[in-house]
Design goal:
The complex is a heterodimer of chains A (154) and B (438).
Chain A lengths: L4 H12 L10 H12 L4 H11 L3 H8 L13 E6 L2 H19 L5 E2 L5 E6 L11 E3 L2 E3 L4 H8 L1
Parallel strand pairs in A: 1-3
Antiparallel strand pairs in A: 1-4, 2-3, 4-5
Chain B lengths: L5 H4 L18 H6 L4 H6 L4 H11 L11 H6 L10 E6 L9 H7 L1 H15 L3 E6 L4 H16 L15 E6 L9 H8 L23 E5 H5 L1 H7 L1 H7 L7 E8 L5 E6 L4 H7 L9 E5 L8 E2 L9 H6 L8 E6 L4 H15 L5 H18 L5 H14 L6 H16 L1 H8 L17
Parallel strand pairs in B: 1-2, 1-4, 2-3, 5-9
Antiparallel strand pairs in B: 5-6, 7-8, 7-9
The chains are: A alpha+beta (154), B alpha/beta (438).
The complex binds 1,4-dihydronicotinamide adenine dinucleotide (NAI), flavin mononucleotide, iron/sulfur cluster and FE2/S2 (inorganic) cluster.
The site of flavin mononucleotide (FMN) has 22 residues of chain B, from strand 4 and helix 18.
Chain lengths: 154, 438
């Protein structure tokens, strides 16, 4: 994957937010940046972050694999995350997840054959007063239910 | 159903939430019309040391769960040490049930920014970071917008309002890891590493971000500061109960008629909060609840009249935590809920220490066995034994917190466990793979 000069400028802008000599702090935001372009954390993305910040690729990979938001494989156009933590679960979140799993024919962390939708269950999304909670590309849908979720997926 | 009585309605005490219903309060001009940045001008008339003394005087305690006195934490920052100082706002909000910081940042982001500026003036920091959980893209966007507005208006940058303070705020998004809410894991994450806790002491106050003195406070702790500066220490103290100054946003979720954020004086009871929230959801009777998220021991219906402040909740055998009140009814099973929480802790364990990494894994398996009707009475002892090996022996609070639902549900609802074990209750799970794995 080629990274344009404009993209590099964005990466440099991120690095400048942090104190002199502490550019490694830019790693998480920079991983978000490469993922927003590439769809997931690619080998090229890892190499890019390593080169910009001046650390090894192994160091970058060790960090990116720690955090659930960094994906190791291509995700669909829509990432559907259903909170199935305890409170959302008892309020119907697990039913929403099951309905989506049934309808889409994919399980947690899997993508539909057409590459459109990736389904995942999420931990508490800090919106429990709107349980059960679902997000699509991190946009929140409150008080959802199985029918509504499947409608949305369609 | 009749609405809450006047007496109970009067218990709502909007301070942090007072602007939430005003349209566009997140915009600078609206915020300024509603007292915004008045506290900052007042604070700059104090010396930094006097401001710290004032915060101590106010009795304000941290809103991130542990309730550590805010003024005392600020006073730990060594002065004239030649090192840069930092303020880090903990906006990782990941404790199951907790949902007060994100709405605050959405509805009133400038109150957080104003609080940050005052705090940085007091502890002589010229750079602040807001570490916000990665999934909260909407709130991060709103914060960045507010930071830009504040900068354009001269509230951030060099020599703010001629106070001599230079300050920049960086909004930094995490990437989905509950453990990064633990303050030292947060620091590692902010430095660009895997988020794993550091040994304390030394505390961040002396060895924090980039090994420099660092104040880490929760969003609510800092957003309260402008209100306290404007209202005065005596006023803040008068709002709460003994050893618990001020108001608190109580988050009600689950089996209640109107879930949501209810800001009241510290020391309000669940009974009063339930009345504010229109009572339990139709057809549901209160069975168990958490006073402050899943890491705080659950309480039973009989505890609904306990004043919700630090000391009284401790006397009742739990922790005030984040005042995330998850309300469960007789339709919900405390054994199953505990199992789900343990799955969460097992998933979020950073793996650094053995008691937490192994303990949560094995306890989860024991719960599956019990919930599938294959448990034994000894399993209950094994669970308590495992908790013994976790509590106080884990490297950080995640491992401690994981024992809370286990020990508290066994304390209040042992019969529910026994019902599964003795076959009085239909198994909830199919875990035939675990039969005989005693
Ligand atoms: N808001 C949320 O989403 C979550 C909150 N929590 C809460 O977190 C709490 C545990 O957090 P911890 O940070 O482990 O609590 P802690 O009690 O160890 O520390 C509280 C604060 O006081 C400071 N402190 C304590 N002793 C100090 C000393 N001698 N010198 C300088 N500073 C000192 C610490 O640095 C920290 O900032 C739990 O009670 C839980 O309720 C847990 C999970 C998530
Ligand atoms: C596992 C774990 C997760 C935590 N998550 C958060 C969090 O999301 N937000 C928060 O403010 N504090 C969290 N804390 C508490 C912090 O370590 C720290 O005590 C707090 O940010 C201090 O702020 P305060 O004194 O203003 O409350 C967590 C603690 C533990 C052990
Ligand atoms: S208690 Fe758990 S989360 Fe904390 S350091 Fe140990 S393994 Fe990591
Ligand atoms: S439990 Fe689902 S958002 Fe909190």
């Amino acid at each position: 994957m080629a990274y344009t000069e404009e993209f590099r400028a964005q990466a440099r802008e991120i690095m400048e937010r942090y104190p002199e000599g502490k550019q490694r702090s830019a790693l998480l935001p920079m991983l978000h940046l490469v993922q927003s372009q590439d769809g997931y954390i690619t080998q090229d993305g890892i190499a890019f972050c390593a080169e910009m910040i001046g650390i090894t690729k192994a160091q970058v990979a060790a960090v990116s694999t720690f955090y659930t938001m960094y994906k190791r494989e291509p995700t669909g156009d829509y990432l559907v995350s259903v909170c199935t933590n305890t409170l959302c679960d008892v309020m119907g979140g697990q039913k929403v997840f099951d309905a989506l799993r049934e309808y889409l024919g994919v399980d947690h962390d899997e993508t539909t054959g057409d590459g459109k939708i990736t389904l995942e269950h999420a931990e508490c999304l800090a919106a429990c007063d709107y349980a059960p909670v679902m997000t699509v590309n991190y946009e929140f849908f409150d008080k959802t239910n199985p029918d509504e979720a499947v409608q949305l997926a369609k | 159903m009749s609405g809450p009585s006047q007496e109970v309605l009067a218990k709502l005490t909007p301070v942090l939430t007072k602007r939430w219903l005003t349209p566009d309060a997140w915009k600078l001009d609206v915020y300024e019309r509603l007292d915004g940045y008045a506290a900052l001008r007042k604070a700059f008339k104090y010396t930094p040391d006097d401001l710290i003394a004032f915060m101590k005087e106010s009795g304000h305690r941290g809103r991130g769960g542990a309730g550590f006195p805010v003024g005392m934490k600020w006073a730990f920052i060594p002065q004239n040490d030649g090192k840069p100082h930092y303020l880090v706002v903990n906006a990782d909000e990941g404790e199951p049930g907790t949902c007060k910081d994100l709405p605050l940042m959405m509805n009133d982001p400038h109150s957080l920014i104003e609080g940050i500026i005052i705090a940085c003036y007091a502890v002589r920091a010229s750079r602040a970071f807001i570490y916000i959980r990665g999934e909260a893209v909407h709130a991060a966007r709103r914060l960045r917008h507010a930071v830009e507005e504040a900068k354009a208006a001269g509230y951030l940058g060099d020599n703010i309002l001629d106070s001599g303070l230079d300050l920049e705020i960086v909004v930094h998004s995490g990437a989905g890891a509950y453990i990064c809410g633990e303050e030292t894991a947060l620091l590692d994450s902010l430095e660009g590493f895997r988020g794993q806790p550091r040994l304390r002491p030394p505390f961040p106050a002396t060895h924090g971000l980039y090994a420099s003195p660092t104040v880490i406070n929760n969003v609510g702790s800092i957003a309260s500061v402008p209100h306290i500066v404007l209202g005065g220490a005596e006023w803040w103290k008068s709002l709460g109960s003994e050893n618990a100054a001020g108001t608190m946003i109580y988050s009600l979720s689950g089996r209640v008629a109107n879930p949501g954020q209810y800001e009241c004086r510290l020391g309000t009871t669940l009974d009063e909060l339930l009345e504010l929230a229109g009572g339990m959801a139709k057809g549901h009777n209160l069975k168990f609840w958490t006073p402050g998220g899943s890491s705080t021991p659950m309480l039973a219906a009989k505890h609904s009249d306990v004043p919700l402040d630090f000391d009284n909740i401790a006397k009742a055998g739990s922790i005030l935590g984040t005042t995330a009140m998850m309300i469960y009814s007789d339709a919900d099973c405390p054994v199953y809920c505990t199992y789900r929480w343990l799955q969460f802790y097992a998933h979020e364990s950073c793996g650094k220490c053995t008691p937490c990494r192994e303990g949560n894994y094995w306890m989860t398996r024991i719960y599956r066995r019990i919930l599938s009707g294959n448990g034994t009475h000894e399993d209950l002892d094994t669970l308590l034994d495992a908790c013994d090996n976790l509590l106080g022996r884990s490297f950080c609070g995640l491992g401690d917190g994981a024992t809370s639902p286990v020990t508290s549900s066994l304390k209040h609802f042992k019969q529910d466990y026994i019902d599964y074990i003795e076959g009085h209750r239909r198994p909830l799970l199919d875990a035939s793979d675990l039969v005989g794995a005693h």
